Amino acid sequence: MGANESSILSEPDVILYPSMKPKLSDIPESCVASVLSYLDPPEICRLARLNRAFRDASSADFIWESKLPSSYAYILKLLLQDEKYRRLRKRDVYALLSKPNPFDDGTKEVWIDKSTGGVCLSISWRAMTITGIDDRRYWNHISTTESRFQTMAYLQQIWWLEVVGDFEFQFPSGTYSLFFRLKLGKENKRLSRWYYTTSENIHGWDKKPVQFQLSTSDGQHATRRCVLDNIGKWVNYHVGDFVVQDYNSLMRIKYSLSQIDCTHNKGGLCLDSVLICPFSVGKNLDILI
């Protein structure tokens, strides 16, 4: 009897007052928000499902503003073209920018890479100056689900090829990589079956390399030469890298693809887009350097 009574009195909170045990919901919302600010966005979203306190804390503006790129206000102005973005919570801004958003009449898309928080851009071939692009003797404009822009340019044949792009953007500070997305050969359908163009339609690319070039308004340059041989497969051809130091300034980017040796004809090339992404993201792409 004495032993049992002693045991009861030694743990009064556990046995006599179980409701006084601390719970997750007892943690102050400000403390939860401070902890969440050190986590990555996917981790924040998972913890927000725990209970109401975590869900409410995960909406704090200071948490999400630290996850947004430094140029997010500039990007929102490009997308919304008015002051609507001022009424958005920072969490909603992050959700908006974490998916591809078209701008410039749908010829470009911008988004945030969820794993790094870096800004990525994709630019359609429609936003570039291309030799003979409106002449159907040389090019076809093909609708396809293989492109994020739902269309690609297919080169049938040409002697002189130049593809040139030129645009301005306010990048966050960091190192970026630029790629051309290309493929040799296109799919055709016959008797309900898909097949690629024959090797006779793909010609001229093994004779001389294609030259890729990149330059920036602050004097950075890159040049690469590569023989195209990626038949039936989309490949991101690495043009070069550039560094952004001042995130408050617009940077002008010029890039090009050319094969101007007129001693031979070339054809069978699919041109989709140009990709610009943080260097850390570019390292994980399917690329040819």
From TrEMBL:
Residues 21-67 form the F-box domain. SMART domains: FBOX (SM00256). CDD domains: F-box_AtSKIP3-like. It holds the Pfam family F-box-like. It comes from the Eukaryota. InterPro entries: F-box-like_dom_sf, F-box_dom, PP2-like. PANTHER family: F-BOX PROTEIN PP2-A13, F-BOX PROTEIN PP2-A15. This is OLC1v1039103C1. It comes from Oldenlandia corymbosa var. corymbosa.
